[in-house]
């Protein structure tokens, strides 16, 4: 069974459904008008932090959970401030540089906007 409905622009879920004039994502509860999806392709992805605040390139964020750095014994501690983030497509959608650790990628769900 193949669906012709668009993927969710917020989380890329394939399980969207129609609800009146809108499309709805059951996984993240994002709603968007069908007219916007029909006019021309994909909507721009909206990046949100753990509290639902919209993130943009150049923002500063704080880490809300201890994060182990894969392939090393380093840990990014709770409260670590990260300045001048860059948003990218992918599973880890923040590209940044952390003092004492270096360049790395984070998930938006583990940060909050300052």
From TrEMBL:
Protein YjdM N-terminal domain segment(s): 5-33
Residues of the Protein YjdM C-terminal domain: 48-113
InterPro entries for the chain: YjdM, YjdM_C, YjdM_N
Stretch forming the signal peptide: none
SUPFAM superfamilies linked: Prokaryotic SH3-related domain, Zinc beta-ribbon
Taxonomy, superkingdom: Bacteria
Xref: PANTHER family: PROTEIN YJDM, PROTEIN YJDM-RELATED
Family assignment from sequence similarity: Belongs to the YjdM family.
Protein's name in the database: Alkylphosphonate utilization protein
Organism taxonomic ancestry: Bacteria, Pseudomonadati, Pseudomonadota, Betaproteobacteria, Rhodocyclales
């Amino acid at each position: 069974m193949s669906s012709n409905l668009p993927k969710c622009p917020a989380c890329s879920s394939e399980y969207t459904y129609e609800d009146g004039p809108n499309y709805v994502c059951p996984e993240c509860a994002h709603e968007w008008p069908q007219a916007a999806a029909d006019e021309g392709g994909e909507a721009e992805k909206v990046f949100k932090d753990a509290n639902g605040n919209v993130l943009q390139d150049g923002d500063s964020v704080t880490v809300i959970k201890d994060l182990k750095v894969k392939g090393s014994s380093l840990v990014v501690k709770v409260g670590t401030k990260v300045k001048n983030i860059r948003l990218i497509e992918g599973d880890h959608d923040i590209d940044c540089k952390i003092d004492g650790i270096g360049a790395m990628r984070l998930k938006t769900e583990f940060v909050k906007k300052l």
